[in-house]
Structure to design on (642 residues):
């Protein structure tokens, strides 16, 4: 019990009334509710009270929030906080830990003065045992047939963590998957390494320096044995260091399995060494992660990578929303969700353009398929259209120029059609590679950016918000890097351009009145709604873009830009932390809103009715909007009007 708690007995009728209003207690009979009321009590926790500490607190009661709210979060090896979610009235705390018989797996702190009903652990477990429907609410991934016995096994850790519980991707740390460190000396022969892999029944071995077994210098996998030894007819007596890959890529043991999955998919590295306090303790593989969850995004990733026909990508692209729906319901952070969307979309694009090159033949010049707007920032949600272009190397002469124009015109037309069939709508503003203006050599693109920066009228500033967030989607990434270098150089020379960009950013009104009420549309199709993208998220995107251009930051993702600005001391820790949290909260609201629309069979949009949010969600959204005023203050001091 927290020392800050103010413990009170509670009138039974008050407790019964509360239970009747929340799931799953409202399904219990009156006699059971009256019995629960006699055993529970109510506690008061001031704002900022730590209720549970991950890995330390023994959970003696189920917390049920009567009034107020809490945040649930974890801390990584560096002590940085990763927000998981906010819980308001009617939500519970501690159920999973009680059922599994473990210490708290999340930190829980109150975000405002909070009242909680406390139900003793033993009473809660008795309900889980005796009320199958009640238990199913908390153990939704288990069938009702095993629910009556599952809690006993969970309490004694007899049930494998690979049972398929969706929560494990977001609660299990990768260090928990590592069993034994299997390694081989770099001086040992390839045959010895193969024998060890067979003996240990593993698909890889870490390779250490022959003079220091603690110095891991690489990794050898069963794929290396097949492709580098057997297929190449290599001598088995050669030292294993001849075929190893190094240096080995690592992840921290405290990293969540979901974050490791993201790294594997974005880097296409399927074996990662796990590091704890500076020491390698073992290896985690993509197979280990896949076993945690039956409907893992990794399965879709593998299907995309293995597809041999472009038409086969159409149905795979349509599966992405279903995967994302699962991640939202499982508790993934908004930043991780948008990153996963970007990774899957990128692999669809990469595979499609690779196959298209095979159909049309090799391009006459090196080129780069550019992604812009939300695609360029890796911030797509369920609602996204195409924003792309083609950047190719400067032709040597008119003949090469004509050949390139013919090839890339056909290439763009086919690519855009395939993307439409994959479910990515056409851009209403025709910012696509099929528009001849946006299919140009490097020198022309450099001229575009120089003109936009040199003549910052409203139309050119609009281009800046779309085109300046470009990144390489496929092809020769060095062309995109050269264009980014040119953009940063030009922008830093033209402070007047950044001035106008900053003032345009501040022109978006904060959607709060003087009395901190939401400003919503008064009539029309979106009456009583606000546009959370335009009014809420866009100011954060614009702020990060202005400062990134000012300081030559190459990142395009908003959260990555903010982190880079903080790391370089261009913004304070307070600004970075509050901006990061406010942006994540709004993006989470946007994703949940769009998911609800999809499940209702309507097209997703960005228009949210604040009155349909819980009281805690409204309060948190208002707090997020007030951060916009702080960002405007920073820009106003940086670029004053007088």
């Amino acid at each position: 019990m927290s020392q800050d708690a103010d413990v009170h007995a509670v009138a039974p009728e008050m407790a019964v009334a509360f239970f009747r209003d929340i799931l799953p207690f409202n399904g219990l009979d009156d006699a059971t509710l009256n019995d629960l009321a006699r055993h529970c009590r109510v506690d008061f926790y001031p704002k900022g009270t730590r209720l549970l500490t991950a890995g330390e607190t023994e959970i003696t009661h189920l917390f049920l929030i009567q009034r107020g709210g809490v945040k649930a979060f974890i801390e990584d090896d560096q002590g940085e906080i990763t927000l998981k979610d906010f819980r308001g009235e009617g939500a519970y705390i501690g159920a999973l830990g009680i059922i599994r018989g473990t210490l708290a797996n999340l930190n829980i702190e109150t975000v405002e003065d909070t009242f909680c009903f406390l139900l003793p652990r033993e009473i809660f477990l008795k309900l889980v045992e005796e009320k199958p429907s009640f238990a199913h609410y908390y153990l939704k991934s288990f069938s009702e047939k095993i629910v009556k016995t599952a809690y006993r096994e969970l309490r004694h850790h007899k049930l494998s963590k690979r049972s398929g519980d969706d929560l494990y991707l977001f609660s299990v740390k990768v260090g928990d998957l590592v069993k034994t460190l299997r390694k081989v000396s770099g001086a040992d022969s390839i045959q010895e390494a193969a024998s060890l892999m067979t003996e240990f029944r593993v698909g890889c071995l870490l390779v250490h320096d022959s003079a220091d077994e603690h110095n891991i210098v690489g990794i050898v996998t069963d794929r290396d044995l097949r492709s580098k030894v057997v297929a190449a007819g290599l001598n088995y007596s050669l030292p294993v260091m001849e075929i190893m890959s190094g240096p080995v890529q690592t992840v921290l043991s405290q990293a969540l399995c979901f974050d490791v999955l993201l790294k594997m998919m974005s880097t296409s590295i399927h074996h990662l060494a796990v590091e704890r306090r500076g020491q390698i303790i073992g290896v985690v593989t993509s197979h280990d992660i896949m076993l945690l969850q039956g409907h893992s995004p990794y399965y879709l990733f593998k299907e995309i990578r293995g597809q041999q026909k472009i038409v086969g990508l159409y149905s795979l692209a349509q599966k992405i929303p279903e995967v994302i729906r699962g991640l939202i319901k499982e508790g993934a952070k908004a930043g991780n969700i948008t990153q996963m969307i970007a990774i899957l979309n990128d692999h669809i694009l990469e595979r499609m353009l690779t196959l298209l090159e095979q159909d049309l033949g090799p391009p006459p010049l090196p080129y780069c398929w550019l992604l812009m707007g939300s695609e360029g920032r890796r911030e797509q949600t369920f609602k996204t259209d195409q924003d792309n272009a083609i950047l190719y190397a400067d032709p040597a002469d008119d003949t090469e120029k004509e050949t390139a124009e013919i090839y890339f015109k056909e290439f763009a037309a086919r690519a855009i059609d395939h993307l439409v069939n994959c479910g990515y709508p056409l851009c209403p503003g025709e910012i696509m590679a099929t528009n001849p203006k946006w299919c140009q050599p490097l020198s022309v693109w450099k001229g575009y950016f120089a003109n936009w920066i040199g003549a910052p009228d409203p139309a050119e500033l609009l281009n800046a918000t779309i085109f300046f967030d470009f990144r390489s989607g496929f092809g020769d990434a060095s062309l995109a890097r050269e264009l980014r270098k040119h953009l940063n150089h030009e922008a830093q020379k033209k402070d007047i351009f950044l001035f106008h960009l900053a003032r345009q950013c501040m022109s978006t009104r904060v959607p709060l009145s003087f009395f901190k009420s939401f400003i919503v549309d008064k009539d029309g199709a979106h009456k009583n709604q606000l546009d959370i993208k335009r009014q809420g998220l866009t100011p954060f995107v614009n702020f990060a873009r202005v400062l990134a251009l000012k300081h030559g930051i190459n990142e395009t993702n908003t959260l990555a830009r903010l982190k880079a600005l903080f790391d370089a001391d261009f913004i304070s820790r307070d600004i970075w932390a509050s901006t990061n949290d406010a942006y994540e909260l709004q993006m989470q609201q946007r994703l949940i809103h769009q998911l609800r629309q999809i499940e209702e069979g309507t097209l997703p949009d960005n228009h949210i009715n604040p009155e349909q949010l819980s009281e805690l969600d409204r309060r948190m959204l208002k707090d997020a909007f007030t951060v916009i005023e702080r960002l405007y203050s920073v820009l106003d001091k940086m670029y004053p009007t007088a």
